[in-house]
Write a structure and sequence with these properties.
Oligomer: single chain
Helix content: 25-40%
Number of strands: 15
Strand order of the largest sheet: 5-7-6-8-10-9-14-15-13-11-12
Distance between the termini: 49 Å
Strand content: 5-15%
Length: about 550
């Protein structure tokens, strides 16, 4: 396969003037991007995914802070205080603590999770493929590294990957029939870093077809099997909620980490675009895509994001953090707690919310207020519509998908088929596409102005606008119906901003999970995680567990 060479280390800055003043302390000041020696990065002849995922260039990059990347001490719970009667209930930090104390082995954890998957996943259908033999061998390797006492923090912690992450020699199908028989020819950067850290791979989990959609309707929500788990990283969220894994990874193009996290009562972070490489993952729309971790608590997200973060010459967007240092992320509550943070709350909310969602979102606002955070009401930009994102992402989606779309339209569900037909009907010209890119810059500057004007550390937004929808017969939903669930997840991708999703109170209407998100200025990922961790010190929303049938 012929590959195009890319000038992979050139930073294209946007909104530098407004970004420089969007924060109130020196730790998040920004300056010009670092000077870089001109060099050419040539992509390898073999695409890792086997699906021709070479990105367009140049890709828009955010200007990073001029100060060093934040660093945090890994803080673990006391192993003696951790209940070991059910290993599948352990979180990431608890697993690390017990592995380091040699109170459990990676083989113990991996076998317990595989056994639970065997017992319960037939009803959930979160896994596309389970790699039991390989996972057990990787766990034994991790145990040997742990015994030698030179293992990195996540060594031995099992993980599940969305079916868009390339793992050399294993199938990679994005839950779509047109990729049946595709085998990854190399590793995605994210998996390569997880593998180097010693994380056993339990398997690939389901996604909405081609990761284009908000339902993942082939998978059941562990809270109610009649409901969808959200998409497109629905298999990742369902596996976490069902206690099939403590760590999972997904991708996010318009909310695909945050929507399923909200539906399944788990946590996720969509990082600042460029903090973690998307190389070797099947794309939706290159300049909107992000990889990110999912876990059952905000504190567990820190080490999972840290292991995949950093510069990668294969992903031009990561060039913006050259010279910044390896970013770190918090794993414990801060000394000052929530009293140090100013949280913006749009008043009125710029999109309609169903009553159960509105009540659940208000519960999080009250938790923040009662815990000492300063609540700042402000007027937010109008929520983006489905048509906005159809136009913005349509060119990139259609360009990548045309390698299959023109050959066999029958092998797509209604959702993806109607989305592709919608792109075709738009008939966007090159002039239209460039106009959209300018609007993205304008939208970013609008959000940055809100952070600056109100001195905000984060903005609190709902993830869903409606209750979780029913699981239809597979393929019965169209894109507008699915996208209607999430009115304000798009901005983080449209503008490259970080966002952390955490559970709030359940819906007062259905009793099912509801999530909120904390939106931040670029490169405030660590601050957002700290806020989320501090919130979870004052609430137990994330501790709710679905009851699976025996």
């Amino acid at each position: 396969m012929d590959r195009r060479s890319l000038f992979g280390m050139v930073a294209v800055g946007t909104a530098a003037t407004t970004l420089s003043a969007c924060s109130r302390d020196d730790s998040t000041d920004v300056g010009p991007p670092p000077s870089l020696d001109a060099e050419i990065t040539v992509l390898p002849d073999v695409d890792p995914t086997g699906t021709d995922t070479v990105p367009p260039f140049p890709a828009p990059l955010l200007v990073r802070p001029s100060s060093a990347a934040p660093s945090f001490e890994l803080r673990l719970p006391n192993p003696d205080d951790i209940d070991r009667t059910n290993l599948t209930a352990l979180g990431v930090l608890e697993s690390i603590a017990l592995l380091r104390a040699k109170a459990v082995t990676s083989s113990d954890l991996t076998n317990a999770l595989l056994n639970r998957i065997d017992r319960h996943d037939a009803a959930i259908n979160s896994f596309v493929r389970k790699y039991a033999d390989q996972a057990r061998e990787q766990a034994r390797d991790a145990d040997r590294r742990l015994a030698a006492r030179d293992a990195p923090p996540l060594c031995g912690v099992p993980v599940a990957l969305k079916d868009v992450y390339a793992v050399q020699g294993l199938p990679l199908t994005a839950s779509v029939p047109v990729l049946d028989g595709n085998v990854a020819k190399g590793d995605s950067t994210a998996w390569r870093r997880m593998k180097a850290a010693g994380m056993p791979l339990l398997g690939h989990v389901h996604t909405h077809q081609m990761a284009i959609g908000s339902l993942t309707e082939q998978t059941a929500n562990p809270w109610d099997p009649r409901k969808v788990p959200g998409g497109s990283s629905g298999g990742s969220a369902a596996a976490l909620a069902a206690r099939f894994t403590a760590a999972a990874y997904g991708t996010d193009t318009a909310g695909s980490l945050r929507i399923p996290a909200s539906c399944c009562n788990v946590c996720a972070i969509k990082p600042t675009s460029g903090i973690a490489s998307v190389y070797g993952t099947i794309p939706v729309a290159w300049t909107f895509d992000n990889v990110g971790p999912m876990a059952r608590s905000a504190a567990d997200l820190g080490p999972l994001l840290e292991v995949i973060a950093g510069v990668d010459p294969m992903d031009p967007r990561t060039a913006a953090i050259v010279g910044w240092g390896q970013p770190g992320f918090p794993t414990a509550p801060s000394a000052k707690g929530l009293s140090q943070f100013r949280i913006g709350v749009p008043t009125p909310y710029p999109a309609p919310l169903e009553s159960g969602i509105a009540t659940a979102s208000a519960a999080m606002r009250e938790t923040l207020r009662a815990s000492g955070a300063t609540i700042v009401e402000f007027e937010a930009p109008a929520a983006m519509t489905y048509l906005d994102m159809l136009v913005a992402q349509g060119v990139e989606i259609a360009e990548y998908q045309r390698q299959w779309w023109s050959k066999d339209k029958s092998r797509y569900t209604r959702y993806l088929r109607e989305a592709m037909e919608g792109f075709e009907k738009l008939g966007l010209s090159a002039v239209d596409f460039l106009h959209i890119q300018r609007k993205r810059t304008q939208r970013l500057e609008t959000w940055l102005a809100k952070f600056k004007e109100h001195e905000l550390d984060a903005i609190l937004l709902p993830v869903l606008g409606t209750e979780i929808v029913d699981r239809p017969p597979y393929g019965d939903y169209g894109p507008e119906e699915g996208m209607a669930m999430a009115p304000q997840t798009n901005d983080a991708n449209y503008c490259g901003l970080p966002a952390v999703a955490i559970p709030t109170a359940p819906s007062s209407t259905t009793g099912l999970p509801v999530g909120v998100q904390l939106l931040g200025a670029p490169y405030t990922d660590a601050k957002l995680l700290q806020i989320a961790i501090d919130i979870q010190q004052h609430s137990d929303f994330h501790r709710r567990v679905p009851q699976l049938s025996p």
